[in-house]
Amino acid sequence: MHGKRQQAGHEKGENGICGKEKYILRAEAAAVQTYRALSVLQECEVVVYDSLVSEELLQWTRPDCEKIYVGKRCGSHAMKQAEINALLIKKAGEGKTVVRLKGGDPYVFGRGGEEFMAVSQAGICCEEIPGITSAIGAPAAAGIPVTHRGLSDSVTVVTGTVTDESGQPRLKMDFHVLAQLDGTLVILMGMRHLAEIVSGLLAAGKHQNTPCAIIMEGATRRQRVLRALLYELPARAAKEGFTSPAVIVVGSVAKLELLMERGDGAFHKKPESNKAEAEHGGAVLGPRTTVGVTGTEHFARKLSSVLCEKGISTWDMSFMEIVPAKEALPDFSDYGWLVFTSPNGVGVFLQKMREESRDLRSLYDKKIAVIGPGTAAALQEAGIYADYMPAVYDVAHLAKGLADKILADGKEGKSGKAQTCKAKQEAMCPAIFLRASKGSDSLPLIFQERGIPYGEFALYALTVQEQKRDAVLTKEPDYMVFGSALGARAYFEGLAEKGLQNTKSQYVCMGEPCGREVQKYGNTPPLIAGEASVDGVAACLCRQMGKEDSVCIDSED
């Protein structure tokens, strides 16, 4: 756009808000390789992104870019579609350059048309920068052409999940028509109903030995490929831990194996000598140790990003959700220290400051304590720098170290804040703990023991998304990571409710409290990260697998 290509009929909308160019961008990794898409992503002031967008793409945005997650997974929507439409209109109406970042082709079961129509009807100038649909891109990344001379001269793309009038996902496919197709059948969003799809195709006459493939997290470092015959596909997928997001390919082209996986997760041309192998059912490409990551989606993305750089395959098993507090932030005038225990808390805090129109300059006389570098980095994005961070990144060391500092400052006559502190006549100024509800008792207990005044405010609650949790209960990766005691408790309670057992996974815990929780359920002692952070967990796993330590990028409480 940039004043060059106005959408026909929308050179000036009814609200007259085309004075500054607005962008609604939809692209995937392939599109972002282009100068056009990259430049737009680098220029935008707001990016609204989905769950399938990689963390690497977001790193191309400017430091002050507002990033808003609106991802949708089956049974879990960060925002309803109408709310997303309204958000795009609101942000563009504020005179901001907006990027709507989606994976694949948004016009192929991606509701891109709905969004484009909504913003256009609101008088907003918008432009489409197309991406490649996963229906083609994911099979290609796995060495499977959707058409191939002598094997398939057509391709049909269908969705395995639709939303009914009540908002519930369901299966809607004409198996009798699909079973008669001679070409390639590509099924998107079908893993939830895989067994039903296979049964329907077989009942409608599809040959049981039809070659099939599942490409999980296609075109990423976490890509995994399963080749199997139609009749055995559900059992093989369950055994190998194949879950959404994934693309299902049914047809003769699935037996082609033009690429093979390297140890680092990349793919390269497969030697012609393997042609005979492709004539059969095939096997999972690149079998290797897998790590299942529970917790929040944010935590899973961060840890997976680090592990994938080391060639470690990960499964997204996140089922915890961050629910911001409804209550307004407290009056901070009585406190000298603001204490943050996670990047999640920082994100919610800054968002609530914006929503309540509270100026960051009101914090000019406060000191800031953080649990670790990830939390510090989250604050730095807003131009706020921590005054204290413990040498060991966990709640206990934060509590002890901060308590010692406050006591030492009191003895030296430092109030810990400017003259506005109501406790300035006392030796100490109180701290306020800004964190999740049901956080560790270490902070308040240590402050109580030292006689240091404090306050608490629950910025958010970590809640269990039961549908997502139940969906991962049958998975048994080689290693399973828990980021919190709450998440571990929810997982094992879910196993008990369903009468299930995990007999394969070695548990890995971020911190001693999480480790103690895991052992309550009669499990063998878990691996406990020496440092309660993403870096600590990654280093623990790397040592266990004989790989070098990773780079620290984040921390959680």
Can you offer a commentary on this structure?
By secondary structure, the chain is an alpha/beta fold. It folds into four domains: 29-131, 3-Layer(aba) Sandwich (Cobalt-precorrin-4 Transmethylase, domain 1); 135-279, Tetrapyrrole methylase, C-terminal domain (Methyltransferase, Cobalt-precorrin-4 Transmethylase, Domain 2); 290-319 and 465-544, Rossmann fold (3-Layer(aba) Sandwich), CATH 3.40.50.10090; 324-462, Rossmann fold (3-Layer(aba) Sandwich). 31% of the residues lie in helices and 18% in strands. It contains 18 helices and 24 strands. The chain has a five-stranded mixed sheet with strand order 6-9-12-10-11, with helices on both faces. A five-stranded parallel sheet has the order 16-15-22-23-24, sandwiched between helices. It has a five-stranded mixed sheet with strand order 17-21-20-18-19. β7 and β8 (169-170) form a beta hairpin. α4 (81-93) crosses α5 (112-121) and α16 packs parallel to α17 (512-519). It is globular and about 85 Å long. The model is unreliable at 1-23, 25-33, 260-287, 415-427 and 549-557 (pLDDT under 50).
Highlighted features:
557 residues; globular; Cobalt-precorrin-4 Transmethylase, domain 1; Rossmann fold; five-stranded parallel sheet; 4 domains; 31% helix; disordered N terminus; single chain; 24 strands; five-stranded mixed sheet; alpha/beta; Methyltransferase, Cobalt-precorrin-4 Transmethylase, Domain 2
